[in-house]
Design goal:
mainly beta
Amino acid sequence: MRQRILRDTRGTILVLSAFLLAGVIGVSALAVEFGLGLYRHIENQRLADAAALSGALVYVSTGSSSAAQSAAGNIVQLNGISSSDAAISLVNSPTGDGNQAVQVTVTTSDPLLLARVLTTKTTLPVSSTGTVEIEGGTAACIMALDQNGTGVSLSGGTSVSAPGCAVASNNTFTQANCGVTITTPVAAYDSGTPPFLASGCSSFVVPPSGKSSVTYDKQVTADPLAGDSAVTTAVSRLTSVAAITSPSGPSASSGSNIDFEYSAVTSGLPSGCTDSFSSPNHTVTCTGNGPFSFGNISLQGGITVNFNTGGSSSAVYNFNEIDDSGTALNFGPGTYNIADGVLTGGGSTTSFGAGTFNIGKLPSSSGCPASGYSICNSGTSLTFAGPSTFVTAGGIYDPGGETMILGCTTVAGCSGSTNSYDLGAASDGYSIYTAGGADLYLADATGSSDLFETAGSIGSSGGSCIWLPATAQHDINGYISLDGGLTLGAGTYTISDYFAAGASSGGDVTCNGTSVGVFGNDVSIVYGAATTISSCGSQSGTIGFCLAAGFSNVTLVAPSSGTMQDLAVIGPIASSGNTAAVDFSGGASGTSVSGAFYAPIGPITLDGGSNLGNGSAQCLELIGSEVSVTAGSATATTCTGLPQATIGQGPSLVD
């Protein structure tokens, strides 16, 4: 029986079938579960990549690792995955280029169903990692915006240094000869070919220290300040500045003319005023507040007049012309209405106490070297104490070798601050002019109702010094043209025409012990180029901004905060159609501009050994229609307080 059973083969097929069925089920389970695992891996990879990209974008805009991690986590959760199933971190990019990356690893567990016949495990873990490099692009600090212009061009022995920012040309880069360099990590161009090499020359666009190569991007670089509210508001003010006219002078006085000689004045004085004389000094005393009316006041040589120096600040005095050719003429405080202007000469010293000064124009017969001025100082010194208000029908003229101070008593240590200036134009178009060796100081006008506006231009000849006041807004209906030194008080300067230093001659001057070409801290210059000059040193054309000749000490520092933050110079914008050029020419060196030099439709040229750079811990952006550097140099960095043009790609998936 036992042997028969052993010899019986009728159940073999069933046993073999059972074994074969288990194998089939196992293989099918592996295929199904593996397919599901692959599908889950693809889904997790998609999610990890999306979350990493989201985190990188947030990091680029905020610089916050916690914000980047939060953004990536939100993407994970929005896709139905628990935040505990995602590992999010900021790591070094696997490319090894030194950039950081956002890395997201998503791990899920899929249940095993059929595969349980082969394993004791009940779930299949599926993990996917996405890595996005944080590469936010490089901000441009030198930009040539005109697609039809010459782009960025270099010649001579020049160099442009932008080691931490991009140089962008909406046409090409041109190397006119060997030996020129642009140092930058990124160069953007929009011509048919990368930067053009002169015959036989090597690449002139070189990477900064620490970088192995320059990144080239073919793109059109948009004007980062086009439509910027601070720029458009500043430029729109040019319209009202161009409409400024000269104020009217006061009416003629009905008083008698007084000539102070070597005897007391006994007639012609207005009621309430007396004069005593102790050779060579006159003492005029007026009791009360007046008004006290005089005609012309004049002094003979050697005479000193102390005119109501102890009088009330509320006193009102009416004059025709004040002419000091004596030794000294000293006025007390008050309101002075001077119909025919103030003239000094003959080595005299003249002073006024603080007050309000309404001054008409000097007659052409006055003897002033130029006509149509309200104040003409040919004496040794003329001083108006402050706080004072100045309203002049004509300009202010310092012919040479003299000192004139408005709103203070001394240049050194002046404490005047709340002064106001409304200055008309003389016959030659100037509201302020100084000649060789003259010093003119206008104390600050920082009160809430103070102003500084001129109906004409500001100019100087060689050897003279001008100090303009600090005030929120300087409005100049004309131009600034210098052959001498200029110190700009803080604030915005809105100039209807052009700004030129050394266009024909002149240069640095020792002003109050310091060598000055142009100096301005916390200033912005806005020029409209309604009229222009035709030459700037070795350059010629239609020029709206010029630094040339011997102006080697030029410092312009833009405000570090507020509406005009980092805006140093603003030229005409597209809506004006005015393409006036910017020229740093003829050896102008040592120029430091901190902020953006923005002339979007005007070409910028550095020529003849000129150099332009920003000071330590400051910034410089050059934005023009074209940028041309010939035998000069420029050093540029980005200004973080301004909108930026970014060159290069944004965050990129690297793993």
